[in-house]
Design goal:
The chain has 339 residues and is α/β, with parallel strands linked by helices. Helix content is 38%, strand content 16%. The chain has 12 helices and 9 strands. Helix 9 links the parallel strand 5 (176-181) and strand 6. Helix 6 runs parallel beside helix 8 and helix 11 packs parallel to helix 12 (326-338). The longest helix has 20 residues, at 264-283. The protein is globular and about 55 Å long.
Amino acid sequence: MNRDTDQARALKELFEDDFLIGAAVNPRTIGTQENLLTRHFNCITAENEMKFINVHPEEDRYTFGDADRLADFARKHGMKMRGHTLVWHNQTSDWLFRSKSGELVDKATLFSRLKAHIDTVVKRYKNDIYAWDVVNEAIADEGESRLRSSLWTEIAGTEFIAEAFRYAHEADPNALLFYNDYNESHPHKRDKIVALLRSLLEQGVPIHGVGLQAHWNLYDPGLDDIRAAIEKYASLGLRLQLTELDLSLFRFDDRRTDLTSPPAELLELQAERYEAIFRLLQEYRASIDSVTFWGAADDYTWLDDFPVRGRKNWPFLFDERHQQKPAFHRIAGAFAAAD
């Protein structure tokens, strides 16, 4: 339940001339956070419900119930919807890669199965989803290899990426198609992502944008690195969207689990950081057309227990009771005044 007590403008209104404001949702949060979602957001993304294993657990069986509920929610409230995700090394049904005897299939079989999956899923939501994360997290984090090792690369090398985009474009020629990844602002990985995107464009692959997941914290990445990443991706002529934004109060390796509420000094740092990020994003609004949080309020976030089990996190603009946090007020004050 949304318990906002003041009359601050909604997030989607603050940035209505700049970019869409989205949130990742699931069947639970469209109920528990409905008022918050409909007031402040104009776009949603399914958190898990459209991933391969959720909609296609067996070769001859699709399970669209939860995904349909989310699409219905977007339609009912006049929201846009992003599709997440068609190709990923995680949360993908094992049958896709293996024969009935358990051996890895050949490339032709893999591509045939992938095309059937993309045709079915993308066409089902053709009137609901305006943009898809076609390929998710294919870049290696470390080392010189461009792509991470996976069953995709073991069977099909690098070709699966271009094929996935082609299949998605055939299924819905009007959908915007994105490559999506994390640590996208760290220079080493950023440059590998840029090289992949440039290669796809040179091949004539129908790719329209890059998704910056933006799982950031109070200290990392630096604003200069974020700016450099935005400029490098935009220089390719692609659309940019922040697809999974949250701002952890902790560094990745911070092991503390003793906090039951967020310290005021960390909330103030979070407010300063969110304001600085949104000022930067607005500066590049000609290239950025959507900013999606990976959740909406602190009562539900994937960062609880990750990467530290037993650690609560508070990464959003709204607290566990859906009240506006200092970060929200900082943004509302800054951007309402800018009007």
